[in-house]
């Protein structure tokens, strides 16, 4: 690893927009890593040496060419809403912020072609205005996150109850990518090439153009359904998602007392013991939903309907109580809590959830997101965990795994540890070709740095900028 | 049952359009009943006394009022493409043809309000032109059948691989219905009232307005995929339907040698032993589909792509080789064959199909339609059966049922026998209220005529117009 020549690179890029304010540089070096007490402890000190804001693919190419020549690491930033420190510069260097590359290039039936730096909500507004279309799925950070950050750092979200995960065949159509070489190349990836860079945290190429499938945009009706018993709530959410004629965009199950304790605008309308199901339903499916509820004698009541309610103060977009926003709301009220990411797989999903509840009780409060996986309805769990020690957190994870749950550990900054704890050869091989010096978002791909790593303990990137204390 | 006064009713309706040509009256008294050798034998002689073509709800009300007063049975006709004799006047009387009530009243995001007599293809053309929308599902007779006939006499079709059956919650929004009373009433049915008249063959009310949900209309790519082995073909069709990110409208599995023997324009391109999968795929999902095929090493080859092929003569719309059109094409080549309607339920669908194939071999050639039921992908079977005797047909049905398949017998003209062989109390109760004299499409609801019927043998409507031979 050669020593970066920061000053030379920064100077050579002086004609491209840069942020000079130290506070801005610091804030643009951070994301939602602090969500995890483990990552907060490890990454809080990280900071870029400079921040550059390209406004075109040509400028991206130039930045990569210059940084390659001067051995400067480049960590790409969408909006910095990632919650694993994905966008944090482990060795300092350059943070490349994509916010100025936000043009939508083409909208057609079922597809959109866009630059990566556009905020998801703005992209949806444009496709909706153009032809009543929207992205199939979006993260709950849709109001601030970029589409590029979602593709490079996300995995699914609102819409996944219908369309599955971002990585599923058909959920990304095409990515245009710039490589980090002496002379950067522009490559177009489709089909089986897409997994090389999707959810690769920008470790092996910079996405400059994205083609995504679109679904019809409706004025989704937002509903809150209250249940006394948690299993009834979970069964209802699953049941709605299995109704082929009822079109939904979201079905979230929230165990009591999360609603009362953490959802401040909802709290006045629920009890300690209220379990909630949050639904986004196509307006033309609302009556079908209500008929289903009557026919099945669902033991829950609709307590809020965005199209018809007498709440003096509405809760705002219900989608912003789901996916990782549930955790965010809990953290705002009680900064001591933390969370996990669990997969409860079909057909054991319901049984596994009950096992976990029986084991942990209030230490692990359930928050389930209905998802489709291989055509079956199942649950992604983002439980709220009472944090005591990192050791207990490890133990909780282990017990989940022993029960048969799959854990995507959100307390890790590497691709492998947040995923399936194994090398993705497609991503590794593409990095060999597209980032031979290993300068793109360093420290995030274990397979690149330490192929023999055994996952016995948390990976510690040896070249990470040391903490100031340690340096003293 | 009072004797109808045909002449008086016809005269009282002389200001409403009527068909006077005897050949027209005969043809408008018939549907696709002849599909079944059993029904052909029983119903071939049936004929209306007169045919009237209302052009408004007011005229429908007048027809029903007059026929009620004169005890004249009224059998409603959409386009007469039903294949169980649904639209055939069992006791003669009036056939009311809805073709003049074909206006689309409103199109909005996710919904359409229409009169019942419009042909499905024309309705789709209007919703597509208006806002890129189309019906969620349609029968393979879409080019000739009416939406009213589909709702009153159909069950699902092209689109059911995604949206389930017509009867599923949310797949019909609202029906406006005229009753057959001294003073006919107009009632609006929604929610749990819909099953009273949907798929009730017009036995308890005449539908004058329909509100249906819409889905986005795409220029669906039509594909033919060829397989040497039937189970590979079935597994592929199921697998595609279980890919959450790949949007399809149709997945049909056709056992060899149906393609070679009966699909005349496809035959030159396939072998005797070629099993076929017919797919309609959203254009923005085609690449995802191909990636899936490679990733799964699917042992099939795309032999026809509607957007890119060198066939000197294209097969036309592939949808018209599916659902009951498969049978139609076989019948045209070999009038001696017949068919069944089977449900192979999840999770045993694949295994059941193989059991049936092992039992019957070429006597029952498989034709599977991928459907969703309760959120799971399964198969509706419309096998092509080598007809020998009605007794053997009964035996084949019995063996299917013993294996655990569900049969919807297409060789019966009653609602109950073509369905679950049990009374639908919702339909019966509504008939009591809406058709007290039992004049609407008589002979089609056993529960009305003979509540104690035991289903030991085929129901024979006692009041059916006797055959001319029998009358001699
Ligand atoms: C409250 C909260 C809720 C969340 N909910 C969800 C959710 O529902 N679903 C979900 O999937 N995620 C969720 N996340 C994670 C994150 O918000 C999303 O994945 C989001 O889409 C990231 O977008 P961003 O623009 O903020 O990306 P960033 O955080 O800036 O970047 C994410 C990763 O992508 C890389 N990157 C960004 N742009 C590019 C580019 N053009 N080329 C190459 N690499 C690039 C970055 O280097 C980084 O590794 C949530 C996070 C929080 C804090
Ligand atoms: C080759 C072939 C393929 C087919 N494929 C399918 C398929 O894929 N899926 C499927 O579901 N069906 C299928 N069918 C059956 C039939 O074509 C469809 O159900 C079609 O939608 C019926 O429409 P129609 O206008 O022809 O109705 P008709 O046959 O005229 O009528 C059907 C029934 O509805 C009643 N009816 C019609 N209009 C009204 C009204 N306004 N109010 C009250 N009652 C009314 C009639 O009395 C009759 O009982 C197929 C039939 C054939 C021959």
Automatic annotation (TrEMBL), chains A, B:
Gene3D superfamilies: 3.30.465.10. Residues 43-217 form the FAD-binding PCMH-type domain. PANTHER family: D-2-HYDROXYGLUTARATE DEHYDROGENASE (PTHR11748:SF119), D-LACTATE DEHYDROGENASE (PTHR11748). This is FAD-binding oxidoreductase. InterPro entries: FAD-bd_PCMH, FAD-bd_PCMH-like_sf, FAD-bd_PCMH_sub2, FAD-linked_Oxase-like_C, Oxid_FAD_bind_N. It comes from the Bacteria. It holds the Pfam family FAD_binding_4. Signal peptide: none annotated. Keywords: FAD, Flavoprotein.
């Amino acid at each position: 690893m050669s020593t970066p020549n920061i000053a030379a690179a920064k100077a050579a890029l002086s004609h491209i927009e840069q942020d000079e304010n130290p506070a801005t540089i610091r804030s643009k070096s951070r994301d939602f890593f602090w969500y995890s007490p483990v990552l907060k402890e490890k990454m809080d000190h990280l900071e870029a040496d400079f921040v550059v804001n390209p406004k075109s693919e040509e400028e991206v190419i130039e930045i990569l060419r210059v940084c390659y020549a001067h051995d400067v690491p480049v960590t790409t930033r969408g909006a910095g809403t990632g919650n694993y420190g994905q966008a944090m510069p482990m060795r300092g260097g350059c943070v490349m912020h994509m916010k100025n590359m936000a043009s939508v290039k083409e909208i057609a039936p079922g597809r959109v072609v866009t630059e990566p730096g556009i905020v998801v909500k703005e992209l949806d507004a444009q496709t909706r205005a153009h032809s009543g279309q929207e992205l199939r799925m979006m993260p709950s950070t849709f109001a601030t996150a970029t589409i590029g950050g979602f593709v490079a750092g996300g995995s699914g979200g609102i819409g996944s109850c219908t369309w599955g995960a971002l990585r599923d065949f058909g959920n990304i159509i095409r990515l245009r990518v710039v490589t980090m070489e002496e002379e950067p190349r522009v490559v177009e990836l489709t089909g089986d090439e897409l997994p090389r860079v999707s959810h690769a945290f920008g470790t092996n190429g910079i996405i400059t153009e994205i083609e995504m499938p679109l679904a019809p945009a409706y004025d989704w009706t937002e509903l809150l359904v209250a249940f006394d018993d948690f299993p009834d709530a979970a069964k209802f959410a699953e049941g709605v998602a299995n109704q082929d004629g009822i079109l939904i965009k979201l079905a979230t199950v929230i165990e009591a007392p999360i609603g009362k304790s953490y959802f401040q605008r909802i709290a006045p309308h629920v009890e300690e013991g209220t379990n909630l199901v949050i639904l986004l339903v196509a307006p033309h499916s609302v009556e079908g939903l209500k008929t289903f509820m009557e026919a099945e004698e669902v033991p829950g009541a609709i307590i809020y309907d965005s199209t018809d309610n007498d709440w003096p103060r509405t809760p705002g977009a219900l989608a912003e109580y789901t996916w990782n926003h549930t955790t965010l709301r809990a953290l705002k009220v009680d900064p001591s809590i933390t969370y996990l990411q669990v997969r409860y797989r079909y057909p054991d999903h319901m049984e596994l959830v009950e096992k976990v509840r029986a084991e942990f009780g209030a230490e692990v409060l359930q928050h389930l997101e209905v998802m489709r996986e291989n055509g079956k309805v199942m649950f992604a769990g983002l439980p709220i965990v009472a944090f005591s020690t990192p050791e207990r957190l490890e133990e909780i994870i282990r017990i989940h795994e022993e029960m048969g749950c799959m854990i995507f550990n959100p307390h890790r900054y590497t691709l492998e540890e947040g995923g399936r704890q194994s090398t993705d050869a497609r991503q590794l091989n593409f990095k060999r070709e597209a980032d031979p010096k290993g300068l793109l978002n360093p420290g995030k791909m274990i397979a690149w740095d330490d192929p023999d790593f055994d996952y016995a303990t948390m990976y510690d990137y040896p070249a990470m900028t040391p903490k100031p204390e340690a340096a003293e």
